[in-house]
């Protein structure tokens, strides 16, 4: 069994996922970078390896049950444990901008597409990997959420997200936050901590490269911090850059 911390980051071939893997690798963590296409994952791992990071590429479409099982088997065989799971992979609406308001008109296709990736697959992958996380001395699960999942802030007409009302996406992140709270409670007597991370409004394809104020390295910081928290760190909380957000 490896003496290094082992981390799996989903959706790690670009954006916040790639930067999270890079920053964890720079801190001495061996990173397993997952992407929907094997060549993308392997290219990402090679790029990190060139920077002196121990990195491995795996194919993982998080919505594919066989691929989730295959990744769990790979980690079991190669490392015998998993210390960090960063559920980074996520999607926004296909047909128009995330910031277009849509509530009553939300289609079944949009709901199913977004919830399959942003909620259901996170739950299923985490469940698949829990036996390996329980073998860690300090297991950490980081769920990439969004401030757009905060019911408290959505209900406040003066909040900074008051105008961002996209039901499918916001509801998927609210539901993900529920998973964080309930799983943290279920695992509270173990060495595993579970938290939701809000990366911020980041210059990514989903967040808007033109308008977002935060760089990708800044956006990865919260995930990295939560992946490496100590025994006295938060559990079952919603965090952005060290500050707690309201549910």
TrEMBL record:
Coiled coil spans: none
CDD domains recorded: carb_red_PTCR-like_SDR_c (cd05324)
Protein's UniProt keywords contain Oxidoreductase: yes
Keyword Signal: no
InterPro entries: CBR1-like (IPR045313), NAD(P)-bd_dom_sf (IPR036291), Sc_DH/Rdtase_CS (IPR020904), SDR_fam (IPR002347)
SUPFAM superfamilies registered for this protein in UniProt: NAD(P)-binding Rossmann-fold domains (SSF51735)
Family of the protein in this entry: Belongs to the short-chain dehydrogenases/reductases (SDR) family.
Name of this protein: SDR family oxidoreductase
């Amino acid at each position: 069994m490896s003496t290094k911390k082992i981390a799996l980051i989903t959706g790690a071939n670009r954006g916040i996922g790639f930067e999270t893997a890079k920053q964890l690798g720079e801190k001495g963590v061996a990173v397993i970078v997952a992407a929907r296409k094997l060549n993308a994952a392997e290219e990402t791992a090679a790029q990190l390896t060139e920077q002196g990071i121990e990195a491995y590429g795996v194919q993982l479409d998080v919505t594919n049950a066989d691929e989730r099982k295959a990744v769990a088997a790979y980690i079991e065989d190669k490392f015998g444990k998993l210390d960090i799971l960063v559920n980074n992979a996520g999607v926004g609406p296909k047909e128009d901008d995330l910031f277009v308001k849509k509530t009553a008109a939300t289609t079944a296709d949009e709901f199913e597409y977004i919830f399959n990736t942003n909620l259901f697959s996170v739950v299923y992958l985490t469940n698949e990997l829990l036996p390996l996380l329980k073998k860690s001395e300090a297991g950490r699960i980081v769920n990439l959420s969004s401030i757009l999942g905060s019911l408290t802030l959505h209900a406040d007409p003066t909040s900074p997200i008051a105008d961002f009302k996209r039901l499918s996406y916001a509801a998927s992140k609210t539901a993900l936050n529920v998973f964080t709270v309930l799983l943290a409670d279920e695992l509270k007597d173990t060495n595993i901590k579970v938290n939701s991370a809000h990366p911020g409004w980041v210059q990514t394809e989903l967040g808007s490269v033109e308008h977002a104020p935060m760089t990708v390295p800044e956006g990865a910081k919260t995930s990295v911090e939560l992946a490496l928290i100590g025994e006295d760190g938060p559990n079952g909380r919603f965090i952005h850059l060290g500050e707690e957000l309201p549910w």
